[in-house]
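Reviewer 2 asked us to include a model.

Predict the structure of this chain.
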Amino acid sequence: MSTPHHSRRGSKAYYPRVRAKSPAAAIRSWPEEDGKPRIQAFAGYKVGMTHVTMSDYRKFSTTAGQSIFSAATVIEVPPMTAIGIRYYGEDWNGLRSLGETWAKDIPKEVLEKIPARKKETTFEPKEVEVFDIRLIVATNATSVTGIPVKVPEIFETRVSGSTMKERMEFAKQKLGTELKFTDFSKAGNFVDVMGVTKGKGFTGHVERFGVKLLPRKNRKHRRMIGTLGPWHPDWVRNTVPQAGQMGYQQRTVHNIRVLRYSDKTEADQINVKGGYPGYGLVRNDYILVHGSVPGPSKRLIKLREPARQKTPSLDAINISYISTESKQGD
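Predicted model (structure tokens):
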């Protein structure tokens, strides 16, 4: 008698499930944006979670307009420093770097990560040659007391705009200056959140894919799959659940609403009693986003302009209460 059909165990959406190369997520694509030039990405450090009481802004929710409790994540977003500009051209093989322009006054801790030959490089491209332009930015890790690593993270953020001339002028204007979260987005807007999830190490079939336990009287083992597949094809296909790495993989969560942005003068309003577990106190600018984001506390989180946004942004979100009670033991 044939067995009834069931859906496969575990998603194939993120294969292969290998460890991420770096704890800092990589931004591999950028949405096209018109209008005034601005940066399309920002970075922060995940602090922890709390809960808020707010008016439900979701138009088609069953509790639309009512006061609800909701989970929220705190991300510390200290200002970043624009240390360089990178110009890209396009050929048959895709984007290629044309050259770079570096700021004159680069922080000492950032210089240690930049090759000496690039510190004095100045490049002035022709406007017709440039296909894309990006700012090279460095995070301000030394000002964040909740993380042990004080080495800044250097990455690129695309500069959007209607014309290439406006984008180039904007990049030159921002070179060597501090970039705040308000240069990227504001409260009420959507963002895409990218992070590397919490690592679980090497796990077995059952925990990794959720397959059923074998019968009690099965020979030798129960926490394993019943078969590696048919006789033909005579190899083990990648659809067969196998033991291996679980977690520590890059994930992107689309369309997360920014509930609040506050500068460091208002950091005490978000700090919980006793500090956030595994992190401590927030001492810089921070944002409060709706729901959860991938990764443990202290993990570097990258924020990008939303690529799939359909719901319009809001001018303000009514938050009546933010929990600052102790999270110890939660």
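The first helix runs from residue 108 to 111. The mean pLDDT is 90. We have added this to the supplementary material.
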